[in-house]
């Protein structure tokens, strides 16, 4: 029988395993094939980075002379490099291990002060790790800030091995000493790579190159949403296998039956030519025309088995699994949407499992993981209600959530039933609060109806995460402000979320009918051979963009972005919803405020650094979205522990020095008179709100949590390069 390994590449969410590999492996096993080895490269590589071997490699890398500017055909701007390096402190593996232990601890995880310290420590570690590749390439820890040619989908950049090698450099030690030897020993016939997100693509391409070089005879295949997007948006079809040149085949669209066809073909010693979703490399010659795509029959998909994923490595205190009982969208009209590969509509065909199948699946899944998120475009309201009734009737113990449409169907009574069934939080795409814009989107909702639905959900104790955007073509400043005001006016009815920026994707109805939406000059970004978005001209929204962007800042008090707490639909946010209910955000905001009974110790949350050149500060503002008025000249430069830069008045140095060692505010106040500071309460509040000081949390002294250390000693902090 064919032996397979399935890889999930960096860089993506480290808090839980993704479900794609488990789905196709479970399907293949149901058809009689042996289980594949599932390798989550993303989480394994992270843990390796602070292992004994990883630290030895990192020490050598940081000590070696380094040219950050030139990589293949791509050169970085010196001021850009220096701006990114401003965020880099001293790498501290002990603190990173303690952070991992906190995020995996079922008690410390829910102490928001300890949670923040843990996330900041991991972000700081990833900032340091990035200096071995492109400084600044890891934004917020696990989001890729790719060099611009990669971000726009330049084939030249995606096939530039020097560029890919440099981007992957932070994981080189893991690739060379762990992953490649493991694959070589495995005797695999097939190695598959799942690429779900755009920011995984450069890592997957380099992995494919390494595997092809080390194991030239293995059948190498890739699938996933990003593979399908490259196929869909390529300016010319020949470009697809220019990008995927190291692969034998790609899977376009859904993968269960395609994967089984591939396994059976390799087992029989033939090339997999029979499945319409399998596209073979041109080196296999011209193939007969096949139907465009095959969509799976959900009745044939078994309950997914997630036991093959490395659950002890994920940065969470609980298991959290994704479950997909439907595919496509029953509404299927939104003019901005470009999901799936249908050519006659915005999304793939709507299919949904029966309630009996859903109950069968969650009954089994709930014995493995209490938290189940329905990873779907949307679920039909009546199906959700019947599902909830069955869960309550059968007494199934689970916590679940899903993305739903804001239908008026959701009365107070029905929402109360959802809550009793374990519904913890739901995500809703309200898109806009202006009726004209909603009608252009063809959303089929009204703002008053939206408010009615989220009120019923909140009254039932279900967290509501709101998703929308500004900048839809022809949206005016006033119409964008309608959405902002709606969220602010109804702040007690939603927990997390907010407003992004409209992006035009090539398959959306807006792109297919530009005149209808007042846009012109549709074009790819320069070099965007496989660009996932289009540029266009539209004077109304362009004129309002900056002012609207400034107004949107009122929506968020500065919690985290994906994959951390505060982002939509991530495990950590879901866990906090379960613990704190609809008051979750108020609980987090309280940590940014001082209280009358505040007598705990605070400690400085960062360090002062040498003031950089004004040109470097200017580039920092551009790269990290900092208004220039926040960076006045003649101030001291302070780097917070997570890498964020602040320019502070000179007197702040003395204030922060009061917290160089843990001190209560009362203790600090007894010394503050020396500084001539009268309103210490306001001063402390500013320092706390900006997180320049934080509540003191001792690092756990737990050798088991810290992991193995060479010679039984804690490693010394390593030295990162200083800004150029």
Describe the structure.
With 724 residues, this protein is an alpha/beta fold. It contains 29 helices and 26 strands. A six-stranded mixed sheet has the order 2-1-7-8-9-10, with helices on both faces. It has a six-stranded parallel sheet with strand order 11-14-15-16-17-18, with helices on both faces. α2 (41-49) crosses α10 and α5 crosses α6. It is globular, with a radius of gyration of 26 Å. The relative contact order is 0.12.
In short:
With 724 residues, the chain is α/β, with parallel strands linked by helices. 39% of the residues lie in helices and 14% in strands. The strands form 8 sheets. Strands 2-1-7-8-9-10 form a 6-stranded mixed beta sheet, sandwiched between helices.
Radius of gyration: 26 Å
Helix share bin: 25-40%
Gross geometry: globular
What is the total tally of β strands?
Answer: 26
- The oligomeric state is single chain
Largest sheet data: 6 strands, mixed
Let me know the average pLDDT: 90
Strands side by side in the biggest sheet: 2-1-7-8-9-10
The count of helical stretches stands at 29
| Structural class by SSE content | alpha/beta
Low-confidence runs of at least 5 consecutive residues: 702-717
Beta fraction: 5-15%
């Amino acid at each position: 029988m064919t032996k397979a390994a399935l890889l999930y590449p960096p860089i993506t969410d480290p808090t839980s395993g993704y479900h794609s590999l488990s789905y196709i492996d479970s399907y293949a096993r149901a058809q009689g094939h042996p289980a594949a080895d599932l390798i989550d490269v993303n989480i394994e590589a992270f843990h390796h980075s602070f292992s004994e071997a990883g630290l030895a490699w990192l020490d050598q890398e940081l000590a070696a002379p380094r040219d950050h500017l030139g990589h293949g055909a791509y050169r970085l701007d010196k001021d850009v490099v220096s701006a990114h390096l401003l965020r880099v402190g001293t790498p501290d593996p002990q603190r990173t291990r303690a952070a991992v232990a906190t995020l995996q601890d079922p008690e410390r995880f829910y102490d928001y002060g300890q949670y923040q310290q843990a996330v900041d420590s991991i972000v700081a570690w990833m900032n340091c790790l990035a200096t071995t590749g492109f400084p600044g390439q890891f934004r917020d820890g696990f989001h890729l800030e790719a060099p611009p040619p990669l971000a726009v989908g330049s084939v030249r950049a995606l096939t530039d091995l020097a560029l890919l090698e440099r981007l992957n450099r932070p994981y080189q030690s893991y690739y060379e000493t762990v992953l490649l030897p493991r694959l070589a020993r495995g005797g695999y016939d097939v190695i598959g790579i799942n690429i779900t997100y755009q920011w995984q693509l450069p890592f997957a391409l380099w992995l494919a190159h390494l595997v092809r070089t080390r194991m030239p005879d293995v059948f190498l295949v890739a699938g996933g949403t990003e593979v399908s997007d490259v196929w869909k948006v390529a300016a010319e079809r020949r470009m697809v296998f220019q990008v995927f040149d190291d692969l034998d085949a790609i899977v376009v669209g859904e993968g269960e039956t395609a994967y089984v066809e591939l396994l059976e073909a390799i087992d029989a010693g033939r090339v997999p030519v029979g499945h319409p979703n399998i596209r073979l490399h041109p080196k296999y010659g011209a193939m007969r025309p096949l139907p465009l795509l095959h969509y799976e029959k959900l009745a044939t998909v078994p309950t997914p088995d997630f036991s093959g994923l490395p659950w002890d490595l994920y940065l969470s205190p609980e298991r959290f699994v994704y479950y997909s009982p439907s595919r496509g969208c029953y509404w299927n009209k939104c003019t901005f949407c470009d999901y799936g590969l249908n050519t006659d509509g915005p999304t793939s065909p709507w299919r949904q499992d029966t309630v009996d199948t859903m109950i069968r699946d969650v009954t089994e899944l709930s014995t493995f993981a209490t938290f189940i998120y329905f990873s779907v475009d949307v679920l039909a309201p009546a199906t959700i209600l019947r599902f909830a009734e069955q869960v309550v009737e059968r007494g199934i113990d689970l916590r679940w959530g899903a993305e739903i449409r804001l239908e008026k169907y959701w009365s107070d009574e029905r929402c109360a039933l959802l809550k009793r069934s374990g519904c913890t939080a739901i995500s809703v795409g309200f898109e806009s609060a202006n009726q004209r814009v909603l009608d252009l989107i063809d959303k089929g909702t009204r703002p008053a109806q939206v408010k009615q639905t989220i009120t019923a959900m909140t009254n039932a104790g279900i967290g509501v995460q709101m998703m929308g955007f500004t900048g839809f073509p022809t949206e005016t400043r006033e119409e964008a402000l309608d959405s902002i005001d709606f969220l602010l006016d109804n702040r007690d009815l939603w927990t997390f979320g907010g407003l992004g920026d409209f992006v035009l994707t090539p398959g959306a109805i807006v792109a297919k009918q530009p005149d209808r939406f007042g846009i012109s000059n549709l074009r790819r970004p320069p070099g965007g051979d496989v660009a996932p978005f289009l540029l266009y001209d539209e004077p109304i929204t362009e004129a309002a963009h900056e002012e609207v962007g400034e107004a949107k800042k009122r929506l968020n008090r500065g919690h985290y972005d994906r994959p951390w707490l505060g982002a939509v639909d991530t495990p950590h946010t879901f866990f906090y919803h379960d613990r704190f209910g609809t008051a979750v955000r108020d609980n987090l905001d309280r940590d940014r405020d001082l209280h009358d009974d505040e007598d705990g110790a605070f400690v400085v949350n960062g360090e002062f650094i040498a003031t950089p050149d004004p040109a470097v500060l200017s580039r920092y503002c551009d790269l990290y979205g900092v208004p220039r008025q926040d960076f006045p000249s003649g101030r001291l430069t302070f780097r917070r522990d997570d890498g964020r830069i602040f320019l502070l008045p000179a007197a702040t140095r003395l204030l922060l020095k009061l917290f160089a060692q843990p001190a209560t505010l009362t203790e600090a106040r007894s010394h503050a008179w020396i500084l001539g500071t009268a309103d210490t309460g306001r001063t402390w509040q500013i320092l706390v709100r900006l997180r320049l000081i934080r509540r003191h949390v001792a690092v756990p002294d737990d050798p088991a949590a810290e992991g193995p250390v060479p010679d039984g000693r804690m490693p010394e902090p390593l030295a990162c390069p200083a800004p150029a």
